[in-house]
Automatic annotation (TrEMBL):
The keyword Transferase applies. This is ornithine carbamoyltransferase. SUPFAM superfamilies: Aspartate/ornithine carbamoyltransferase. Its EC number is 2.1.3.3. Belongs to the aspartate/ornithine carbamoyltransferase superfamily. OTCase family.
Length: 312
C-alpha cells in the first residue's frame, strides 16, 4: 500500500477548534468557487475515493460523489450489496484492499466499531458518513449554515428536540471544541449516550444540558430535529410515535422558541411526525441550505484531511 498520508475524520473532537474552523473556511472557499463556476479549482485531480454504504442515502451519496468529482477527483459508489462488509469479507481486510487503490475511503455503516476498525487498518484517511453513533459531516454542514445565517456559531443557543441519536452525539462533540449553548430536549428514555454527555460537560467549553422540558426551547437560535426512528430502528416506530408525540416541532413549538429561531433538520424528514409541513416550508426553515452545504462542508473536510492544500 502507498505510504500513510492525511487524517481520518471520525469524530469532531478528534480535531482542535482551529482545525474545525479551518475546515469551515475551506468549505466557504469551495462554495464560492462553485457559485462562480470556477472550473480551474481541481485540488483532487487524479485522486479516487471509495464510498462504502451499508445503509440508504440521498444527500451523503450524492454530495460526496458530486463534490469530489467537481474538485477533480473520481468517487466510487459501493452499494450495500457490493462489498457486504463483515459478511463476504472481514472489515479489516476490506480496509487494506481499498486503501491499496484509493486516496480516501468514505463509509456509512451501522456499528461505529466497524468504522473504527476500518480506520485502524486503512492506510488512507477514512471519513465518517454516519454510523449508529454519530454523523459529523452533517453537523459540519449545519455549523456552516449557522455561520451563514447568524454570522456565528460560538455564542449561539442550539436546541435539539427529539431522539437523543447520532445527530445529537455529533452536536455534543462539536460543543467540546466550539463554545455555544447546547440543549437536548427528549422524552425520558431517549437521552443521548451518557458518557458522551459527560464528556461534553467535562470539556468545559460549552454549556450542555439534557432535559424533557419543552420550555427549554425558549430563546433558541436554532431548533433542530430529526426522525423519531433512525435507520435500523424503523420497526420501533409505533411505540416511538406515542412517546415522542409531545415533542413534535410544530408551529406552536416554534412560537414558544421565539421569532429569532431557525428551523434545522438533517433530512430526510417525516412531515406529520417529528415536524410539520408548515414548519418545513416556513421562512425560518433552512433545511435545504443545510443539505446544499453538505457538499461544501465535506469538500472542506476532505481538503483538510487529505492535506490537499499544497495542490490548491
Ligand atoms: N442527512 C443525510 O445524511 O441524508 P442521507 O441519509 O440521505 O445521506
Ligand atoms: N438519525 C438519522 C439520520 C439520517 C441522516 C438516522 O440515523 O437514520
Amino acid at each position: 500500500a502507498p505510504p500513510k498520508r492525511g487524517k481520518h475524520f471520525l469524530h469532531l473532537d478528534d480535531f482542535t477548534r482551529e482545525e474545525l474552523l479551518d475546515m469551515l473556511e475551506k468549505a466557504k472557499l469551495c462554495k464560492a468557487k462553485f457559485y462562480t463556476r470556477d472550473e480551474s479549482f481541481k485540488p483532487f485531480a487524479g485522486q479516487t475515493m471509495a464510498m462504502i454504504f451499508t445503509k440508504p442515502s440521498a444527500r451523503t451519496r450524492v454530495s460526496f460523489e458530486t463534490g469530489f468529482f467537481r474538485l477533480g477527483g473520481h468517487a466510487l459508489y459501493l452499494d450495500p450489496n457490493t462489498i457486504q462488509l463483515g459478511k463476504r469479507e472481514p472489515t479489516k481486510d476490506i480496509a487494506r484492499v481499498l486503501s491499496g487503490y484509493n486516496d480516501v475511503i468514505m463509509a456509512r455503516l451501522f456499528a461505529h466499531s466497524d468504522l473504527l476498525e476500518l480506520a485502524q487498518y486503512s492506510s488512507v484517511p477514512v471519513i465518517n458518513g454516519l454510523t449508529d453513533y454519530n454523523h459529523p459531516c452533517q453537523i459540519m454542514a449545519d455549523a456552516l449554515t449557522l455561520l451563514e445565517r447568524k454570522g456565528r456559531i460560538e455564542g449561539t443557543k442550539v436546541v435539539y428536540v427529539g431522539d437523543g441519536n447520532n445527530i445529537v452525539h455529533s452536536w455534543l462533540r462539536l460543543a467540546m471544541r466550539l463554545s455555544f449553548e447546547f440543549v437536548c430536549v427528549c422524552p425520558p428514555g431517549y437521552e443521548p449516550c451518557p458518557s458522551t454527555v459527560e464528556g461534553a460537560k467535562a470539556a468545559g467549553i460549552s454549556s450542555i444540558s439534557v432535559t424533557s422540558d419543552i420550555n427549554a426551547v425558549k430563546g433558541a437560535d436554532v431548533i433542530y430535529t430529526d426522525v423519531w426512528a433512525s435507520m435500523g430502528q424503523k420497526e420501533t416506530i409505533d411505540t416511538r410515535k406515542v412517546d415522542f408525540a409531545p415533542y413534535q416541532v410544530n408551529e406552536s413549538l416554534m412560537a414558544l422558541a421565539g421569532r429569532q429561531a431557525l428551523f434545522m433538520h438533517c433530512l430526510p424528514a417525516e412531515r406529520g411526525l417529528e415536524t410539520t409541513d408548515g414548519v418545513m416550508e416556513s421562512p425560518v426553515s433552512v433545511v435545504f441550505q443545510e443539505a446544499e452545504n453538505r457538499m461544501h462542508a465535506q469538500n472542506g473536510i476532505l481538503l483538510h484531511c487529505l492535506e490537499a492544500t499544497k495542490r490548491m
